[in-house]
């Protein structure tokens, strides 16, 4: 498996690499990529004409990416390093396609609705446009034991393929998986309670079958079917089960991809304090 790691100046990449190490996926090969927005070209011949300030920035870039490479290797990964110049999101996407990466990983500070960090913005751009799966680390994860993940599913064909991809990635560091399906009745006036109960029962049966398949793959899987808004339920359940990671399927790319991903998933990427793995089978 090939993973691209975005390297930023505030060192949030360290938490990302640590989380990737804790996930224990099958032999990931890392490329740490730092993108300097202060220069728009990546042509060594231009260095004959740069200012003293730009030369110092080049030295800073080289030192930063070298430390990121060393940190990745100290966490047990085989790692290579690359420095690019220009738009971070655009070039991360380009590098992932060029290297045929399976996963793009970035760190992001927690964002409020009206306040964003650089890598928070990049995380949103990647969620909308990337064809690869995305790991966005929001905070440090304690290495005190096996990880717990909350996995959202609506039991659609795409959601089922996302679960298959998760098992293919083989994150041996995740011991407990909790499948979450929400039933949102907002917008339905005078909805029959018996219809909701019937739908919940059929959904619970699908969840049980999915858990049986995951248990055969070596996970400890459980499920919850809850009536409520997905975003609100996700936040409460992440806290209740002490989850380290939120896992969601993310379909499509570009503008239509944003519509397919849905506002709830994008809200988790943008505003949630939890680390998130967006799966794209």
Give your account of this protein's structure:
It is a single chain. This protein is 43% helix and 23% strand. With 281 residues, the chain is α/β, with parallel strands linked by helices. The chain folds into two domains: 2-137, HUPs (Rossmann fold, 3-Layer(aba) Sandwich), CATH 3.40.50.620; 147-279, HUPs (Rossmann fold), CATH 3.40.50.620. Strands 3-2-1-4-5-10-9-6-7-8 form a ten-stranded mixed sheet, sandwiched between helices. The longest helix has 24 residues, at 193-216. 38% of the residues are buried.
- Strand line-up in the sheet with most strands: 3-2-1-4-5-10-9-6-7-8
Gap between N and C termini:
14 Å
Q: Care to count the β-strands?
A: 10
The rough form would be described as elongated
Low-confidence stretches: 111-117, 252-261
CATH superfamily annotation of the largest domain: HUPs
CATH class of the largest domain: Alpha Beta
- Give the integer mean of the pLDDT values: 83
Predict the CATH topology of the largest domain.
Rossmann fold
Q: Which strand-content bin applies to the residues?
A: 15-25%
Helix content: 40-55%
